[in-house]
Design a protein that fits this description.
Blueprint lengths: L1 H4 L14 H6 L9 E2 L2 E2 L5 E4 L1 H7 L4 E7 L2 E3 L4 H13 L15 H21 L5
Antiparallel strand pairs: 1-2, 3-4, 4-5
Length: 131
């Protein structure tokens, strides 16, 4: 890989943000998130209704829409990821931008509350009790 040849070490960490506590620990802003050197690759945060996450939690929730060159995508384009990596390479050694104090976004709060309620309901129903 070109980055390795240039002396950069590439390490990929995947974290499943399955709980509110993990979302807070990782200062999760939107699902899904991709970071390079701790920086979100999305320059702009946009979200739209996500049927998959809605099915998981039983509520309507929003998830990230990826924007590249003014066009919205449901998954990040390769070009967006490469641009983010190169942005980090070219800005190496510059100090980090100031970050605002983290607060769990409302849509993620709603997701985790709804998911916990749905999981409890399903567990209760499987135990032979009906609500």
């Amino acid at each position: 890989m070109v980055l390795n040849a240039a002396g950069y070490k590439v390490k990929v960490n995947k974290v499943n943000i399955a709980t509110k506590e993990l979302a807070i620990q990782y200062q999760f802003i939107s699902s899904p998130t991709i970071r390079v050197n701790g920086n979100d690759i999305a320059v702009e945060l946009r979200e739209s209704l996500c049927e998959d996450c809605g099915t998981l939690c039983g509520e309507n929730v929003d998830c990230r829409v990826w924007v590249y060159n003014g066009v919205e995508y449901t998954s990040p384009t390769k070009e967006l990821i490469v641009d983010a990596i190169l942005r980090e390479v070219y800005n190496a050694g510059q100090h980090e931008p100031e970050r605002k104090a983290y607060q769990l976004p409302e849509n993620l709060e709603k997701y985790f509350i709804s998911k916990a309620h749905k999981d409890e309901t399903e567990l209760y129903e499987k135990s032979g009790n009906m609500i």
